[in-house]
Amino acid sequence: MESAFFIINKDLNLSPAKLAVQIAHGTDGIHLTKNNLLYKVSYLITSNFDLIKSWSENDNYYRWITTLRKKIILESDKVTLEKIKEKLKEADILFLSILDAGLTEVEVGTETGIVILPTKKEFLPKMVQFLPTIKQK
Question: Which fold has domain 3-129?
C-alpha cells in the first residue's frame, strides 16, 4: 500500500499545532505535484522533470488518494535528515522539502522536514524504513 512519508526535524521541537501545519503543507505539495502546479512552488527537490512526469502519470498517487491516503510521520535529527535526502536523490525517489514561512516558531525558510511522495515502504532506503515515528511530549 502506498503511503506518504513525512520526516520531521526533531531538533526544532515543534509544537503539536506547528507539526500539524507542516504535515498539511507537505500534503498540499503532494497534490500540487500531481496536478503539475508545483512549478509555482520552489520546494520540489529535483530538477529531473522526466522523473516528476513519470511519478505524476503512475498509479501510486491514484492508489494513495482513493484508499486510505496513509501518512506516516517519522522523526530524525537534522544531520540524519540530510543523509536521507542524499539517499533519496541517489535512488530517484521524489520528495518535497517543507519550508516554513517564519511567522511563529522558526525562522523564515527553515526546513522543518520533508515529505516523500506516496510510494511503498519497501522502495525506500533502509535508513528511512527504520526511523521512529514521531513522539509528541
Answer: Bit1 (3.40.1490)
